[in-house]
Specification:
Elements: H1 3-31, H2 33-36, E1 40-41, E2 44-45, H3 46-76
Helix pairs in contact: 1-3
């Protein structure tokens, strides 16, 4: 097992997933709010929805994605629970 390769893959996953979360929460909730407010979800403007709830949903989804990725990485490096 190469611990350095494992750690690099872990950090790469974290950076990618946190970048996605940043893009969704900052981009959709702040930068593109005016363009997104032209659309509505459940009667609420889409920009408002992303700022209030959308980024939280994306974060929760990314947690599940991270768990799945780490389980695969653990198996690859023979660190999974047996």
């Amino acid at each position: 097992m190469n611990k350095q390769m494992y750690w690099r893959a872990n950090i790469r996953y974290l950076l990618i997933l946190l970048s996605i979360w940043f893009a969704v929460s900052y981009g959709a909730g702040i930068l593109f709010v005016d363009q997104l407010n032209n659309l509505r979800i459940g009667g609420f403007k889409l920009g408002f929805w992303f700022a209030q709830q959308g980024s939280i949903y994306v974060f929760v989804i990314l947690i599940f994605v991270y768990v799945r990725l780490m389980n695969k990485l653990d198996k690859k490096h023979d660190l999974d629970e047996k």
